[in-house]
TrEMBL record:
This is Nuclease SbcCD subunit C. GO terms for biological process: double-strand break repair. Keywords: Coiled coil. It comes from the Bacteria. Residues 197-249, 409-443 form a coiled coil. GO terms for molecular function: ATP hydrolysis activity. Heterodimer of SbcC and SbcD. Belongs to the SMC family. SbcC subfamily. It comes from Streptomyces lividans.
Amino acid sequence: MNGCGKTTLLDAIQLVLYGPRARCSGRGNRSYDTYLRESINRAADPQRGAELRLEFSITVEGRPRTYEVARTWFAKGKQVRESLAVTVDGKYDDTISETWAEHVEEILPLEVASLFFFDGEKVEQLADPERAADVIEAAVQSLLGVRAVEQLRTDLLALQRRQRLSQEDQGILEQIRDLKVKSQAAAQEVSDQSQLLAQATSHLDVAQAQLAKIERDFERAGGRLYEERRGLEAAKEATAERLAQTQKDLRGLAEGPLPLLLLRGELAALQEQSVREQEAAEARQVIGVLERRDAWLVDQLPDGVPAADRTALKRKLTADRKKRAAATELALDLSLPPDLPQKLAALDEVLETDAARAAELLRSADKTVHELQQAERQLAAVPDEQQIKTLIEDRQQASEAVIVARAAVEQHRELVAEARSRHERLEADLERARQKMVRTFVREEELQRVVAYADKARTTLDRFGEALLRKHISSLEVAVLRSFQTLMRKSGLIKDLRIDTNKFTLALTNRDEEPLDPARLSAGERQLLAISLLWGLAKVAGNRLPTVIDTPLGRLDSRHREHLVDRYFPHAGRQVLLLSTDEEIDEHLLQRLRPSIAHSYVLVHDDTTFTTRVAEGYWWTEGALHAV
């Protein structure tokens, strides 16, 4: 029945083989991670995930090999983790598992998978010339060996282009001469720069000796004390500025609320009075609420309550209110603002902060005054400037001479290093060029021979590729036409079928030898044409791959269905899997197909657990009914 999982089986085969490249019917425009997440059964734990396993046997290098491909995935937060494991003849193969995307292309390329795994309802679209051209080209290129020829031509062309290295070898002798000249110039430059470096080093030694003599004279004359005077003056100025700033900050604090610290007691009393007035106001509000509540409470008393009890309750409630009212009376009422307690509390915090800041500034001021006095005493001991003015000028000139001489030495040292490095590099290049010169003649002869043979091979491959394409296209035309005529009940509808070797498009001719547009065919006839195309391609390829057909009979009428059952399904491949609805392969068609059937199964869906299980038999048989 529809919705039991036929198309899911077809999608599962493609998904386990091709992963994110699989052309699954239900994926649409969704990302691969989203598709995998939605492919986990809704009743299953997403963290345990889902798994697909496909086992198949093929012949590799003349030996039968059994592959098992297992693709598992599970959800982890917003991500989906996927893994793939491939075993060959029961042994896990790490290399094939890691390169499965490339390995499966050698078994069944994705471009031609639609020839063997297809939906019968959608296969009609292949009757369109452009869609058919894509399938024909992919099949011819992949299955019939034309792509291998084209790849060989491309490889040979790449090989020829790599042989251009011989042109470089021809310039080796000129390169050697040029490198010799440059190497000699670099060696001379190393010698010249080394001499200049020696002269600069000698000048530096003289300048450093002169500077050392002047430094000793400068120290004996008290120059060190004079140098410290500038630092002391700067320190004195900085200290005086700090003192002025501290005093300014103290005046700024005095201009604020700080003087209110003298009224701490009065402020505390004002705080207490404002709190009492606020509490009294709140109590009066409560008394008003209680009066209304008491009146309402008396009204709620049942009529059966005695008058004496009612009167007693009223007296008790009235006495409670009077007692509360007495507590709200104040000896003194200044009518202070309601928000005064909050303002006084904020003022208290400000005063605490300002008091701490003022104490800190006073301590800083005392320390700064002490530092200022110390700096003044130190400045009084500095010698007069006129006593050492000449020595200062001589010392400055000597220092500048040392700096200039040292810079000259560093510059010449860098120039020597650059010249030596350039000379070593040129000598290495020269040695490599000399070694290449020995091999140049042998390599040139070798490469010319490779180019010549590659040209011959490419010419041969061009002719071979064209002949191979014509041969396969011719065989394909015959196979597709015969397949279509075999399946059609109108045996004379199409007389000829041609395939353009350049565009790979189909051209049909009717029995009057006039062109026939595929669009003029009925939906069923277009479906048969598309199936004939797939069948013909499989025949010409000679590939013993299985065929999986979902909804195999689609829109076909009864005669066309019988033709497919009798003539196509038993011969579509060595192994054929039909995913049919109960309206397609009915009891009548099943009897016609039974001689070719190995196994029959029914897919049974459980709507409560959202799962499908496989039972032996067909949908109307006793086994299937019992399974249901």
